[in-house]
Design goal:
By secondary structure, the chain is of the alpha/beta class. Helices cover about 45% and strands about 15% of the residues. Helix 1 (about 5-15) packs across helix 10 (about 240-250), helix 6 packs across helix 7 and helix 9 (about 225-235) packs antiparallel against helix 10.
Length: about 260
């Protein structure tokens, strides 16, 4: 049960608002479902709080029309509000400018509940040779996110393991299972480093500067969670009230509550 203090904060702040970004098939919906502890699809609302038919939204996106101001809410945890940037990643300059305007507007919104509190930028690792594509380059080079913290989420990180295994399978022949897994993980780490993606993300010339990055893997499995993302997001927030608001949305995440309290 949320504390009285947390309940007051939620009344003051409203809901915790996230802009999730990244290419199609980056695993964004799965992440949101994990965060909200559900397998259901979100309900979608316009900026005035009117519910929108999901089929109409999907049809609009297929035609190349997407309203980043639309809100996605999961009934399992309605204290989160999500916005999806889908559009500019496909190369639309108009959508890119629309996304920049939206971020600028929500960064300076008068009411704290209307602000974007964090940006999650998802980068899938299932094509490690093309990790940092034009859309990532454009966003981090040209989009000033102001005081909104950016947390980069490397999704599908497990995809590096079969690539790593393919490179060293002869070398690990006859090696025990535990040692074998360790060697594969080390080679996967080397593959990740060789992509150079971290150097490009944290380039001081970028306008958007990540506060941190996390790696998520096997999100399609039932026993996985996004605790590392939620912890990283909590620590990325400069506003203590927002930190407490985020923690209060995680009713069952005792470990996160303890870490935030210690900090």
């Amino acid at each position: 049960m949320a504390t009285i203090e947390a309940q007051k904060l939620r009344r003051m702040i409203g809901r915790f608002r996230v802009l999730i970004m990244g290419r199609a098939n980056a695993g964004k919906t799965t992440i949101l479902q994990k965060v909200c502890n559900t397998t259901d699809q979100p309900e979608i609302y316009d900026g005035q709080g009117n519910k929108i038919d999901t089929a109409m939204v999907e049809s609009s996106i297929k035609r190349g029309n997407h309203n980043i101001a639309n809100e996605m809410v999961f009934q399992s945890n309605p204290t989160f509000v999500f916005h999806d940037s889908c559009g500019f990643e496909a190369g639309s300059e108009e959508e890119f400018e629309s996304m920049k305007d939206f971020i600028a507007e929500r960064a300076h919104a008068t009411k704290i509940e209307e602000r974007i509190h964090v940006i999650w930028y998802c980068i899938p690792m299932d094509d490690h040779c093309r990790t940092f594509q034009r859309s990532e380059e454009k966003f981090f080079r040209e989009c000033d996110t102001g005081h909104i913290p950016v947390v980069v989420v490397f999704t599908k990180f497990e995809a590096l393991n079969p690539v790593a295994y393919g490179e060293i399978k002869k070398q690990i022949r006859g090696v025990s299972g535990e040692e074998r897994s360790k060697i594969i993980a080390e080679r996967a780490e080397e593959l990740f480093t060789k992509t150079g993606v971290l150097d490009r993300l944290y380039n001081p010339k970028n306008l958007a500067h990540p506060k941190s990055h996390v790696r998520l893997q096997n999100m399609n499995r039932q026993n996985t969670n996004c605790d590392s993302l939620l912890e990283s997001t909590t620590l990325a927030l400069d506003n203590e009230e927002l930190q407490l608001c985020l923690v209060s949305t995680q009713k069952s995440n005792l470990e996160l509550c303890i870490k935030c309290a210690i900090r």
